Amino acid sequence: MKIDPNNHVPIFLQIVEQIAASIAAGVFRPGESLPAQRSLAVSLGVNPNTVQKALDELERRGLVVSRRGVGMFVTDRGNESALTQTEEVVAEAFRRGLIAARESNLTGARMMKIFENVLLEMYESRETP
Amino acid sequence: MSTIKGETIATEANGPAIELEGLTKHYGGTAAVENLTLAVPRGTTLGLIGPNGAGKSTTIKMLMGMLTIDAGRARILGLDVSENMPAIKQRIGYVPELHQTYRWMRISELIGFTRSFYKTWNDDVCDSLLDLFGLDRRKKVKQLSKGMLTKVSLLLAVSHEPEVLILDEPMSGLDPLVREEFLDGVLRVVCERQCTVLFSSHALGDVQRMADNVAMLYDGKLLVHCPVDELLSSAKRVRAVLRDGVLPRWQPPETIWQQVQRREWLLTVNPCSPALLDQLQAENPVEHVEVNSVGLEDLFKDYVKGRRGTP
Q1: I need a labelling partner for B35 at 20 to 30 A (CA). Which of A39, A76, B18, B86 fits?
Q2: Which of B60, B13, B12 is nearest to B33 (CA)?
Q3: What is the dihedral of CA B238, B240, B246, B247, to 10 degrees?
Q4: Closest Cα partner for B132 from B112, B165, B154, B117?
């Protein structure tokens, strides 16, 4: 995980999104614990209160549950919910790109073409690293 | 009497770690700090930002009893700094902007010397930071680079396990690697105990990472004081495209900074709201309006430019 301290996205939200993505990717599986608040704070280089805020938010979203004195654990539906939430993050990123396209009066067909090209580019570079 | 005593102790333990009330300092006819009131709750970190000459260092020096206070008061852990500095110093750590220290001493001698002033000195904390920072205790202070000197300064400021840590532009002039190490050291201290931190900085990325709250000073006055996250979500950069040959007629009172260039009207507003955007479009001859988030660095610049009245 890596946070960007110069990004306009508040740091606790960056942490939320990245932990959610890690849960979606299966780095942390249902029933497993997340790293402790302090070790997350030191490894990410952020204030421990900010980490706590992120963990609270993840709990509010139902991805993890806290067990008093033990730590945070991925819930049974954590992986599934994380996937749904990651989809929303991706959709939001697309939305922003499309707004930029619309402001320049790009047609739907040209947008689709751009999307296809980017997709091809990424998967080709994946196959030949 | 015992209840009254009990209450005093309770307020001292639950009250803010740092409290400034109408703090004022004049140099000649000009106010370096004017009527500054703010509190730092226990266990939180406050980032103090502002352009050069805004009053950050003056504030910290008054807090540390190094400058007399012209008006108002400052309390640390419930104790007034003008009366209780020796007692306060046992419970706080301070890293100054300039490290004036005993150049002829070896690091080990400097540690021994500093240690003798504190009742609560913890050798384990000191040793673990020497390890973390990769410092050789046999080295003489005059042989140290600026980065190493800053790390020594931090180590000396936190080994007595202070409840409050005050850092005056600790990371200025350090290379990115040393900055990481320094921040790492501060974080360990903050994580191990519920330490309260006040630090001034020009590196807004560091403020965003380290601080719960941010206080922005300009010309000795407090411009903004709020949680960093709240500031980043409430402030927005609005870009409006004006119709041909017209100028904006109505400017939101929440405007921090604005600029008109040809048909583009840029304005930074805090806080932004749907009502503000509706009124902006209703009252002004604009074609369309776009709203974006702003990073702390840009927001800071906009506040300063807005105050100076320059685009």
Answers
A1: B86
A2: B60
A3: 10
A4: B154
ipTM above threshold 0.90:
no
Non-local CB neighbours of B244 within 8 Å, separated by 6+ positions: B263
- State the fold for domain A1-129: Arc Repressor Mutant, subunit A (1.10.10)
Of A75, A72, A82, the residue nearest A34 (C-alpha): A72
In chain B, what are the domain boundaries? 40-68+81-229, 236-293
Per-residue pLDDT band for B299 (boundaries 50, 70, 90) equals: very high
Q: pLDDT for A53-75, tens place per residue?
A: 999 999 999 999 999 888 899 99
Residues from chain A contacting residue B228 (CB–CB below 8 Å)? 10-11
- Whether B232 sits inside 8 A of A10 (CB atoms) is yes
Kindly give the pairing relationship between strand B213-218 and strand B45-49. Answer: parallel
* CA-based nearest residue in chain A for residue B46: A47
Residue of A nearest to B181 (CA): A45
Sign of CA dihedral B186, B189, B192, B193: negative
Q: In percent, how much of chain A has pLDDT > 90?
A: 38
pLDDT tens column, B47-72: 999 999 899 999 999 999 999 999 99
Q: What are phi and psi of B272, to 5 degrees?
A: -90, 150
**Residue in B with minimal Cα distance to A40:** B191
Q: Which two tokens stand for residue A124?
A: 């080709």
Q: Determine the Cα–Cα distance for residues A38 and B214; give it in Å rounded to an integer.
A: 22
Q: How many CA atoms lie within 13 A of B162 on its CB side?
A: 27
Domain extents in chain A: 1-129
Is some CB atom of chain A closer than 8 A to the CB atom of B53? no
Give the Cα separation of A113 and A115 in Å (integer). 5
Which has the closest alpha carbon to B297: B202, B176, B204, B171? B204
- CA torsion A76→A81→A83→A87, rounded to 10°? 180
**Whole-angstrom Cα distance, residue B35 to residue B3?**
34
Please give the interface size between A and B, counted as residue pairs whose CB atoms are below 8 Å apart: 65
Regarding the domain with residue range B40-68+81-229, which homologous superfamily does it belong to in the CATH classification?
P-loop containing nucleotide triphosphate hydrolases (3.40.50.300)
